From TrEMBL:
Organism of derivation: Heyndrickxia camelliae
Gene3D superfamilies referenced in this protein's UniProt entry, alphabetically: Winged helix-like DNA-binding domain superfamily/Winged helix DNA-binding domain
PROSITE patterns assigned to the protein according to its UniProt record, in alphabetical order: HTH_RRF2_2
Signal sequence coordinates: none
Any Gene Ontology CC annotation: cytosol
NCBIfam families in UniProt: rrf2_super (TIGR00738)
A molecular-function term among this protein's GO annotations: DNA-binding transcription factor activity
Protein name as it appears in the record: Rrf2 family transcriptional regulator
Amino acid sequence: MQYSVGVEYALHCLVYLIDAPSNESIGIKDLAEFQGLSETFLSKVFSKLSKANIVISVPGVKGGYRLSKPPEDISFWDVIEAVEGPKPIFQCKNIKDNGYLYREGCCSAPSSCTINLVMLSAEKQMRDYLRKKTLAWLNEELDRDLSKQVREETRKYFSKSNK
């Protein structure tokens, strides 16, 4: 299982939107430039985040994006599902139905495949864990892990008053 780099880009960029005043937005160009990312690719990621109601697009020359709800209401799983889509990680193909005994009809297949049940349970546990990790939690972790200077310089970079 592997999530696309779009998930990482999205999570990093969403953290920068947390401190934006509610009447301001941050442009894709600034977000892409700050992280050394492709503006085109990041636009596609933010289009998905917008469709999932994680961000709001603000049109105009000074437009951009801002969070659509408080950071404590946006989980890692919300972002993953927005960027990757809702498909399950494990996709059972019911290959047991092609097995010799089932083909010949001498055994009745169990109603649920044990392998599928284990994989679905593991996915559920992962989703539940990622739903508990929010942008607010991530922001607090970054406050602990990064120097105060780095956090302040990042906020200044995205401040409209410095542009």
